[in-house]
Amino acid sequence: MRIFQSVGELSAAAGEDLGVSDWHEVTQAEVDLFAEATGDRQWIHTDPERAATGPFGRTVAHGYYLLSVFPALLDEVFAIRGVGSVVNTGVDALRFHRPVPVGSRIRAMARLAEVRVSRRGVAELEVEAGIHVEGMPEPATTAVLHSMVRPPRGAAVTGAAPVAAATG
Description:
Radius of gyration: 18 Å
Low-confidence stretches: 158-168
CATH architecture: Roll
Largest sheet: 7 strands, antiparallel
Shape: elongated
CATH class: Alpha Beta
Oligomer: single chain
Strand content: 35-45%
Helix content: 10-25%
CATH topology: Thiol Ester Dehydrase, Chain A
Mean pLDDT: 92
Order of helices and strands: EHEEHHHHEEEEEE
CATH superfamily: Hotdog Thioesterase
Number of strands: 9
Number of domains: 1
């Protein structure tokens, strides 16, 4: 796991791969809980008998379930410490490229695409992330995740000219 202790460390790492999470099994119980929480009880997700005769041969995870597991998987890839708070601010370019069968194992890969730091020391991050299924060469889901990183409360900002560290 990669650990960042400050906005400065994040800014210096712009454009770098952050790493890969551990493998995580997608279980029917998790998919069913997601269906219950969201009200999306479509049979391709929740009815193993019917799904066995459907287009994927078994139940598959919801696309939005995959989006929802990004935070947990990315917590295994990198952490930001020494700051006031980290707040998710949006998602761009979210794509569900292929189904993720229940029972398969997934992991996340991440790249710190861009870091923009304001005069007040607040950083805006863009993380390009993908969820990969074991045995599949291409990602099942990709997204650009946006976060805002605030400095610790009362922290003095020194030499804080705006910084834009873009990828190359």
